[in-house]
């Protein structure tokens, strides 16, 4: 039995991927580019364990076993990495497994993420990147050309290919539509290129989205005339401009394209029939406040982007970090009542929170933001704030971090109990409020702590 | 002194107008088509009074005088209709005013509408159509070609040109970009062509929108790549298909294009930089419930459309009217508390309301709608419901309906007092709720009754 545990980052696109060229190959109708986020703040952790004694391939996701025998995507990742496997040799030079033997090994996988699943924070990107990186580590996989592993991760979840690299990463759509071999990720700049770049994430909802990305893309490709135009005519120029901007650390251009492309992606969702909505009124308030902030600044100092969910990611530079967080806390504070009940882990960085709370915001700025219609001091709409930055690709972790038992190869990860308890309590609280005619919070699945959880 | 009082209808487009080809001529970047609504339910009323003794042109809007000396649009309508004026002759054949004399006459105008102003219910369309129709009546204007008066109304407010005709009315964008002479309205079918067609209007907000149509269009034309593509490539085919569908009373095609085009218009607003939002979460719930209803019906039985505001107009046929209203009242009921305070005028047709309340909705339908995430029985988000249908163009009213004093030519209309009082009370109520951390209602400008008001 051999095993490896890796962590992998999530990534948030600045030029968005929306629409498949080939469903079978999971290739896109346009190229895209994203910032890989720091795994100290958000990550997926995956342990892969392989053994000849495993009768079938198994997966535990956040501690619960899923039936993967039906999952073509999961199986495509296993078979894809197995094809690149090399002979395993001990430090003494002894052959432990000949590469021809790997096909007889069963695969167990346990994966968890430290942030909400399927709520538009690219949990599947981080998850599939960690899966492929973990498999590659166990099998000693060697690429035959740069980016080959990313073509495998792409088959798991499109945007997962970008999470195999740190920094600013492009997914080139490719030209070989028969094999998808050249539809791969390419690092534009590494994670040390722009150390001042920051991302502020406002988790507006941690509930699962009601239209999955795959289903939404398919409907959009079939019904939105605007999406086809975007993919064929708008995106290439944006890719060139934003890669240049990132390379030159030109935040104004980087930020403007990021906002425009987020809005255009959501516009194509709205042009879909029936229309798809991922942003809500809270998301819209974030957008309006960011534009008010930029107008007050006299430049693009903050740039929002929204994936397939209502959560905002706001890119900015370090020099405005305290001011921007202070501003967001004015309009999207933590819920004092719930905070006192469950303990506050509202912001992932307590020092930044303290600095922001002490920050003196300009009166004119507040007046301009107030005019956008969002009331100050109204808590509960934003569930959690992450402050993060760009980070590296997948990292191999120590055996102590393993989520599969080293003796049995069975799952040993249990989802955090504090978070689950909070969800139940909020569910009851939400129902209570319905009696007054207001629904403030969704009842199910709310994870306040986002804690790592423990092991059995 | 001569005077005339007319009423004019509003219209709600099925293929939307968004974007000006020429700001000076007020011509559009694409053709559009709309249903003219029944003036028994929503209308603008305008009295025009002309006299050589009037020193300057004056306008009272909903009882309050506005300075029109700066308004190019208002002045363009007056000078445009004056150019088509004819000699006024008494019933006895006596010349009262030679047409060459009209240029020495000052114009007084008083105008009111029976529905919220500038909230995306085409109040300016009805208002400018009434102005041009009133001026044409006073001056005995004669068109030199069909639709010429509509080219004048167009200069007041683009969509006003369509309100000069009843039924289903196209605005042809025209080819003469130097004069705009052929950018005019044309009746596709009259108001008796499709007597079963109904419109259910849900007034989600009666506050003034924060981005005016003119300003929004200008930003969209300058920044949205999708808007240019829509105008040049998508709209013409939609115009042909929907005119054919209306002519053949094919609701499925009519309804599908109506929904698609509403969504595409709002998509181009979202693609604008900075983005423009007219729909809110209540609008989105309406959309989701309409699609659930259609899926349950197994056909397009209801078709929403949204102008530049959050209010929904749902076209449907008479045979589903009770069911559709009953369904909407499940998810968007009147606010019981406010209703009891201010008296209920929630639905403009009490008989239809009674029928809908007695209607037994299917359990499976309700289950499908519940799954869309909107809670049942939550009042207050919809302020007022209008049930209406297609109607005729402008109508000349009797002298008893005049809004200008026949002796002095000065305004004698006062805006309804009941509505204003309600607004103040709601303002206080809204502030009270802020103390609990919830803002349910905007404080200002809420008109519950929409009453006609009285005269001084």
From TrEMBL, chains A, B:
Say if the entry is tagged with keyword Lyase.
yes
Uppermost EC category: lyase
Q: Name one GO molecular function term.
A: diphosphomevalonate decarboxylase activity
Report the residue ranges that make up the Diphosphomevalonate decarboxylase-like N-terminal domain in this protein.
Answer: 8-185
Question: Which Gene3D superfamilies does the record associate with it?
Answer: 3.30.230.10, GHMP kinase, C-terminal domain (3.30.70.890)
Cellular localization per UniProt: Plastid
Task: Give the family this protein belongs to, as stated in its UniProt record.
Answer: Belongs to the diphosphomevalonate decarboxylase family.
- This chain's protein is named diphosphomevalonate decarboxylase
Q: What is the protein's species of origin? A: Triparma strigata
Q: What is the lineage of its organism?
A: Eukaryota, Sar, Stramenopiles, Ochrophyta, Bolidophyceae
